[in-house]
Amino acid sequence: MTVKKVNSNLKHCNTCGLPESFPGIHFNNECICNFCINFQGLEYENNKREEYSQKFESMVKEYKGKSTYDALMCYSGGKDSTYTLIVLREKYNLNVLALSFDNGFVPEQAMLNIRNVVDNLGVDHVFIKPRFDVLARIFVYCTDNDVYPAKALERSSAICTSCMGIIKYSALRLAIEKNIPFITYGWSPGQAPINSSILKNNPAMVRMMQKTVFDPLHRIVGDVIKPYFLEEQHFNLSGHFPYNINPLAFLDYNLETIYESIKRFGWKKPEDTDANSTNCLLNSFANVVHKQKLGFHPYAFEMANLVREGYIDRSSALKRLDEPENPKIIKLVEDKLEYKGDFHV
Ligand SMILES: [Zn+2]
């Protein structure tokens, strides 16, 4: 595969930078997109943040110390989830179990970061590592075929959606088995809206949502994928269904503070990842495939949200999205996946 950029002659929103190739976008006469026009404003966001932050504090009082662990943190080792883990320990004093996923493409430095941070923070840790041949089959199939509906691909690539599905339901399964009240994520405020930052899982909803990931993956690789999803025995434990919490949506999100805090716990920036991910080499490959197939960057929506909410400026967001992936990393991924598929550009 050769590495090509998204067509840079596209029209972009004057406010948030979202391109005209993004699904469902339209512009007014001043070239401002419908997402910006519908944005409720920073004051609304700040009030919501305060409301959710207080809600979480009262939930911490209610649940802390009642189970083996207070929270199961989905810990990628990236900057945002590392910072979230620190906040859970230092600000809320929670007893956290960290869960990381090894998809075969975690850079050496990211592995080191994970090990250093959990030890320096005094956090127990579990790795989930499915067989690589199974994961490789999924990644290759997702590259050559349309596995998910277009709506599911507005905010992440098909490869990321597969990994995230496995992580999300593995975490839920483990939290139910251990009766852990909170599953915590390190999504940036651009990735997850404030209104969904505290969500109680319920069996009927989970059953429906799980199907959208489990069914396609099961068709690709069969029963070997079952251990990573909820089975009937889990659905029967409805009293053990945890809350999903995304603290960065309601706490201060400041990149300088984040980098400073995580450095204190031994975190170092991996040298060999691309601009949008500090913890996964496969991400570069997934981004290239997504851009070529769908005509927009899988991080475009997140970046536009961060611009709208005042976390970064429009030109640095566009610059980041415009940065080409490193051809060496793409080659490394193709070799490791033994990719000989139909997708070529
Ligand atoms: Zn916009």
Q: How would you describe this structure in keywords?
A:
binds zinc ion; six-stranded mixed beta sheet; 6 strands; 13 helices; 47% helix; alpha/beta; 345 residues
Your description of this structure?
The chain has 345 residues and is of the alpha/beta class. 47% of the residues lie in helices and 7% in strands. The chain is built from 13 helices and six strands. The chain has helices at residues 34-37, 42-63, 79-90, 108-121, 132-144, 158-178, 203-221, 232-235, 255-264, 282-294, 300-308, 314-322, 327-337, and strands spanning 71-74, 96-101, 124-128, 182-184, 198-200, 243-245. A six-stranded mixed beta sheet has the order 3-2-1-4-6-5, with helices on both faces. Helix 4 links the parallel strand 2 and strand 3 (124-128). Helix 3 (79-90) crosses helix 9 and helix 11 runs antiparallel to helix 12. The radius of gyration is 20 Å and the shape is globular. The structure holds zinc ion. The site of zinc ion (ZN) has 9 residues, from helix 1. Zinc ion binds next to helix 1.
